[in-house]
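To whoever is on call:

I kicked off a structure prediction for a single chain this morning and the downstream step that reads the tokens threw a length-mismatch warning. I double-checked the sequence; it's 96 residues and nothing unusual in it as far as I can see. Pasting both halves so you can look.
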Amino acid sequence: MATSSRNNPSKQLIEQHHELTHTDNIKVVSHVQRELDDWYLNTLMLDKINVPFKYKRKKMYKSLKGQQVNITYYPDNETIAGFDLEIMRVVRIKVS
């Protein structure tokens, strides 16, 4: 059965914002959560990808380590201690 883009939020996002990338069923090898002001900054490392994926949440979330996820993201840069690092900003994440 075909899925229309109206019923699939990931496809809708990608159609509206062409810089977004969507990946299905990728394994989370590391998940770190730390407090940052009133938010929790989540950092994921995914299988066979050497770039961190970052997103914020208001509450702590269960660990995603070892889980298969569907993830929608876009590339970004972050400066830490004078070094410019490539990161991926997560727009949408869902356990698959």
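Update from on-call: the warning came from a stale cache, not from the record. Cleared it. Sanity check on the structure: DSSP finds one helix and five strands in the chain.
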